[in-house]
């Protein structure tokens, strides 16, 4: 399992690299804000839309090379983008990087589940690996680009190549075992899986909304300094990591469906408390609480999706860990319109209501078989 946790960290680092690098394309290349948003869109399109197709292919054929190749492509595409001389080439490289991310997740999720067995805690560590990689990216990329310019994205290529080779060798060692592993005889349950995907999508919308506007809420509504606004986002993300691990423990003890319901219900008061935070300092504790509550179902959704589609674990992972998570990013412009009209606090107000939808869907989920 440790190979998959580390590989997931490295892979999702390149998802986090893109938003960290976009401001430097604006500053150094003088791209417009529309052009800058197009770069983020390229990465999102590449990482989201192909995942169900790649998941289907990973289920149809073992394709043990897919995760190592995807991870390598994610790093090479993102790393070369800062060296590309023209906007279309930058856009294409970030699209390819996103496709690499999309190629990694279905195969990695399938094989990580095999390594974890019945343990949701094991899958929660796999999910946390991705969270850590995404959160590390701004901390490492921003100082490098400040010091050496946008071309410094290239210095982040070697970790992807190295980890791709390590993961490929790991896959080669387990190739014989994988070839002998039979596909589960359980029947796929598409209706529960679609309900579960709905939970994942709505949860992703909430997560992206808070991640995008929490700093602005701290600065413009609570009157905090910019530095404290950044700390608020960090504490929210730390809470998310803790919530993912807590969710895995709860699922192993109380069951996946019950854990998703617990997390969905807990998110409602946690987000309300965050919205009505009386001052920035108290709000930091509430940001941690919000991150924990919102992320309790995260890894559980991935494992339960594989339980609903036992014959298609790659497809299930591609949707729950890939497509559904990425879809949340497409709602950012909607929240932007709300913020432009009524301020960032209005975005958090709207997000306080959205968990009601998640709760309703969660209580429609049936228990997995066997």
From TrEMBL:
GO terms for cellular component: plasma membrane. It holds the Pfam family MFS_1. Keywords: Membrane, Transmembrane, Transmembrane helix. Residues 193-370 form the Major facilitator superfamily (MFS) profile domain. InterPro entries: MFS, MFS_dom, MFS_trans_sf. Its main location: membrane. The chain crosses the membrane at residues 61-83, 89-108, 120-140, 146-168, 193-219, 225-247, 259-277, 283-304, 316-339, 345-365. PROSITE patterns: MFS. It is a multi-pass membrane protein. It is found in: Cell membrane. GO terms for molecular function: transmembrane transporter activity. The keyword Transmembrane applies. This is MFS transporter. It comes from Nocardia panacis.
